[in-house]
Predict the structure.
Amino acid sequence: MTPTNSRQRSAGDEAAPRIGVYVCHCGLNIAQSVNCPQVAESASTANDVVLSKDITYACSEPGQQEIKQDIIDNQLNRVVIASCSPRLHEPTFKQMVQDAGLNPYMMEMANLREQCSWVHMNDIENATRKAETLVDMAVSRVRHLDPLTEETLPLIKKTLVIGGGIAGIQAALDLADCGYDVTLVEKQPSIGGMMARLDKTFPTMDCSI
Amino acid sequence: MTDAGRHPRIKLLTLSEVVDVKGYVGNFDVKIIKKAKYVDETACTSCGDCATVCPVVRPDEFNMGLASRKAIYSPFPQAVPSSYLININECLGHNPAVCSKCVDACDKKCINFHMSDEEITEQVGSIIVATGLEPYDPTELDEYGYTRFENVLTSLEFERLVNAGGPSKGSLIRPTDRKKPKSVGFIQCVGSRSLRKGEQYCSNICCMNTIKSTLVLKEHYPDMEVKVFYIDIRAFGKGFEDLYTRSRRLGVKYIRGLPGSLEETAENTMRVAVENSATGKLEFHELDMLVLALGVKPAPSTQRLQEIMGLQLTPDGFYLEAHPKLQPVDAATRGIFYAGCAEGPKDIKESVTQASAAAVRAVRLMHKGEISSEPITSEIIAEKCKACGKCAEVCPYNAISVDVKNKKPAEVNSAACAGCGTCAAECHFDAIIMNHYTDQQILGQVDAMLTTEPETKILVFACNWCSYAGADYAGVSRLQYPANAHLVRVMCSGRVDEKFIWEGFRGGAPVVLVSGCHIGDCHYIDANHWTEKRVAKLHKKMVRLGIRPERLQLEWISAAEGIRFADKMKDMEALRKSVSAEEIADTIELLTKL
């Protein structure tokens, strides 16, 4: 049974936006080319922003604790984390806001490290201005976010391994020994790959087969 | 090997290739072609009677052509599955009966010329890509004389000659006179670490492989003179330095410098000219045999599989992992993992480690028996839908069904929807909500960006998987570019709606860039084809309206192309400077009136 066109947005959360903004220093990774307190100060004037501050390491345990406490104390319902790339820490911060009672999709990141401080290293003035704009963009986006719920789908407990060399064989055996069915596909008439051709192998100097 | 062959949970498909992969994490549909072996694998006992009578003699690939096999053959004695097969292109043929000697010789009657290729479909939850490597082909490096001199061998040919199961039963002989060489030289970095020919990267295994070979030689022939020509010896792994020290203690000479030229003497020995960079002197060495330590290249099938599965490659041609440190065995596509040399050159220990890691990553994904999918999928607003069918046409996953005849609103199968957002971008009636990337959310970002001094800014739409990742890669590499480029992240460039672009220009943006995965590499099968069409259409409209079409740019930037991203930002800045304040004002006026 495949789900069709389900309304994934849950009810509620119609309350007025109360946004919290956190500008992460990432030690000096961001702070050396972006004036983080200034960025936080600038964001605090935006509509719906209840709280805006800079923070040394947003992803650290104390950093996350501080944000979670703020969410509860200030009844924040949307959060902007201006730090590294969402490709790195988006799952971390989604989990964090969820722990604080928010829907994980009510969080947005502004990429101040990979796409700002690291690529405009000797230009503090312009990097800071860009950081301010990136945070403004994230605030604007987070204001329009809707809570979403993940869907659970069935999964086939079976793996395809492409290539029957030493890596493919090892992966197939490990999976099979864990109780998973494996289909091992090899282009050649026999498995074994390159390693089957070798006599002694380093560092143990023993036979390969 | 044999464990894998007899494990009840492992289905072995040899002489087989994956030809198509559809579906998504947890539910992949895989099409495999199993080529005919013309011998019944399950019945064959590998007695070899068939090969004895076969009249066709061919070079044996397993032994790098140093031995011969028949047209019906077993790949090698320990092969798994342990069965003979016929190379039908070499076989003299059976119908009409030209030969068929093997059929007569086989007691078990397991040879069947009517066998044909089989198409097998498998449904799996995860995929491990372990396609391995291809050794570098040294024929283009003429200075080492591989094609000219018989006593110049590759490291793989050498492996077969010193292997007890090899063509010479493990005794090292020279190809020209079948005699034991008195001296052997190894040339390192053949096809590696070169800006000229071959590859630029270090192939990782060749130093240790050569050291191992020198130890094998010294063990069997203590008096043999063994020399190694090298740039650097990279013995960085556990126990590696010990082997290197042992090799030197046993008298192997390490000469720092790669040979410049090679000539053959009357006795078929090699005269090697080399500048020893440790002494700064030109040296000549006479050696009975030379071994080329071949570099490692990605397997030839890498690119084809990359296209089938929508994976990414590094500029070197190996598969690109999701994160080089934190997700070293994951592909960017959820549910696909890498093991072994498919991801980069590595030795056996590392391959085994990575394979076990990949297996555990797959178990971690599958053990619950269900999978949670991101709710980043599209939704139809039935009241607005005109049942035109456009969304169903553009959906790469056939996840949308529309009854055009009866004008019934479209429906999205959210399990099949991967969330590219192309449907929402193509819908003329604003009847599709792309969850988490709604029009309102994206337009909000564009507006916020252009609130102050829009004329100084560059608006960039970047797809999550390639271009946004490419921008991150530029960051990780600390590549500097102008500080006025601002990225709006979308899952796919297919999501970039016409109205986002117009909103940008109306808001005063001098230039706009749409960037996505290269054609053929799209994370959503082929959604970026629609991006390409849409941008072409926009360019035409811009011309009609009197807006310079160059102000809207389209660029394909992969996750590995940090340099390309940074360069494009510099180009965009030059382009931005060419747009005058009047031009921007005219555009704003023009678009506001529309």
